[in-house]
Amino acid sequence: MTTRSSLLPMTGALLVGLAAFAYAKTNDASDTTSVGALPQQAVTIDPLSFAVIGENGTFRENSITSFFNPTNTSPPFFQVFDPAFLDILGPHATIRSVASNPDFAFAHEAPIWNPETDDFFFASNDGGALGFSDLNHNSKYGKINLKEVTKAIRDANASTSAVNVTVTELDLPETIQMTNGGTGPYHGNLLLITSGRGPRPPSIALVNPNPPHNVTVLLDNFFGRQFNSLNDIKVHPTNGKFFFTDVTYGFLNQFRPAPLMPSQVYRFDPTAGSVRVVADGMLRPNGIAFTGDGNTAYVKVTKDLAFIFGVVGGVFGNNQTNPATIYQFDVDLTTHTFVNRRVFAYTDTGIPDGIQVDTKGNVYSGCGDGVQVWNSQGILIGKFFLGTTSSNMAFAGKGRLVINAETNIFLAEIAAEGLDLASFT
Ligand SMILES: *[C@@H]1O[C@H](CO)[C@@H](O)[C@H](O)[C@H]1NC(C)=O
Ligand SMILES: *[C@@H]1O[C@H](CO)[C@@H](O)[C@H](O)[C@H]1NC(C)=O
Ligand SMILES: *[C@@H]1O[C@H](CO)[C@@H](O)[C@H](O)[C@H]1NC(C)=O
Ligand SMILES: *[C@@H]1O[C@H](CO)[C@@H](O)[C@H](O)[C@H]1NC(C)=O
Ligand SMILES: *[C@@H]1O[C@H](CO)[C@@H](O)[C@H](O)[C@H]1NC(C)=O
Questions:
Q1: Residues 105 and 80 in one domain
Q2: Where does the chain cross the membrane (predicted)?
Q3: What CATH number should be reported for the domain holding residue 315?
């Protein structure tokens, strides 16, 4: 998923002189927190400034190979479309790479923060570019320590420049194959969801975050049939049930057999063991998240696999007419089915992947150019612009958003706070 794309600057005077709008808009508000307090890595872009590009302007033709970066700013930076994003950032926000390995997509999915140790966990790319995993090779699961990150930043006296802490790979039992999602901690354990590999089944498993990293598999079949390749999981905040997505990427990535079931969304009751389908009819359901009250669910449906591979024009082609859409549902609290499906957001770049929700109801998703943020009404208010694909991210307590970006992990130190996923039991 390392989509390296050109940063397409939009031409024309219409894009110049936009930087003052945030001041203008926040200064007249009663909210004083953002007055005169634009973080140094923030670039404000008034949507009205690009509402018309004009006949001689430069338009984007491809949502993967070209980014929307009208100010032609070097990533990483904060792209601010609405003053509300400044409240998420706070006045002293920074964003930087904190771990990198240009030769290995070590930070793809399954981001989990363990508050007990301040470790941040992640899975390498399973079956895609620079993941070095396939039918014959498992993906890796690793971690960095955020205390070490804090120390490295302090030691370097680095205001915004990158640091590079050590990545530690976990030695996990063979039952964990091609990790693609995760949440928690759940009763102190990492809750992982795996895609399986070859004949080995996809599964949901608890993993001890501390050595010896022993594993308890909780589910690996639907009444005797294997899932296709399980993708992502969240625990419902009020009823404690597990909700997860199953999709055909493992087959399309040539490490799983032909699908035996449709791509759909399931619910698992970890106490009773019962499994049921709660939503279907989506092309490729992917990331999943709930609002804090549990009444709303978001499910990502991604477009062509080429977007996932970052292989434009590759084996599976690249068709921008497929959805790159986050759907919103109501969760029927009796049956747990997802009802009243509607479009929440369609991303302008790449595909939306993992999703997180903050305490104010803003929705964050990894996309082709970084992490994009929509308010609860579905308006894109800003981006953590990386200039490369992010598949997923997780909050690490108040004010820290840790972003997986394949060959890098970025830390954004901001004002917002994510939902406390560890309390969802
Ligand atoms: C676009 O370019 C053409 C050719 O140079 C010119 O005649 C036309 O006026 C331009 N249009 C605008 C809106 O600037
Ligand atoms: C960061 O350190 C790792 C080794 O821990 C190394 O492989 C990698 O190249 C380093 N990244 C950069 C950008 O130097
Ligand atoms: C950081 O600042 C301290 C004190 O000013 C100095 O002793 C140290 O050498 C600096 N470190 C780096 C990496 O610049
Ligand atoms: C790991 O092993 C310990 C000791 O047997 C046990 O208490 C714990 O539940 C195990 N954790 C998992 C996730 O299997
Ligand atoms: C893209 O998908 C649409 C809808 O399925 C289809 O009509 C169109 O032919 C596809 N285009 C290409 C280039 O495959």
A1: no
A2: none
A3: 2.120.10.30
Provide the mean pLDDT of the chain. 87
- The reply to whether 276 and 332 lie within a common domain is yes
**Whole-number pLDDT of residue 421:** 85
> Would you say residue 143 lies in a domain?
yes
* Mean pLDDT for the stretch of residues 176-182: 97
Q: Note the maximum CA span of the chain.
A: 63
Task: Read off the pLDDT of residues 334-378 as tens digits, 9 standing for 90 and up.
Answer: 898 998 888 899 999 988 899 999 999 999 999 999 999 999 999
Tell me, in angstroms, the distance from the centre of ligand 5 to residue 52's CA: 28
* Residue 342: exposure state from Cβ atoms within 10 A (0-12, 13-18, ≥19): exposed
User: What's the rounded mean pLDDT across residues 35-48?
Assistant: 89
Measured in angstroms, how far is the CA atom of residue 164 from the centroid of ligand 2? Answer: 6
Would you place residue 36 in the very low, low, confident or very high pLDDT band (cuts 50, 70, 90)?
A: low
Q: Which of 255, 257, 244 is nearest to 309 (CA)?
A: 255
Structure tokens at 118: 């301040």
Nearest CA residue ID for atom 5, ligand 3? 157
- Residue 3 included in any domain: no
pTM for this entry: 0.89
Do 85 and 102 have their domain in common? no
Same domain, 84 and 130: no
User: What DSSP character marks residue 139?
Assistant: -
Residues at CB less than 6 angstroms from ligand 3: 156-157
Residues of the domain holding 33: 12-51+69-89
Q: Which atom of ligand 5 is nearest to the CA of 319?
A: 1
Asked if the structure places residue 141 within a domain, the reply is yes
Closest by CA to 421, choosing from 244, 276, 233, 274, is 233
Claim to verify: residue 80 and residue 125 sit in the same structural domain:
no
Ligand 5 centroid to Cα of residue 283, in Å, is 14
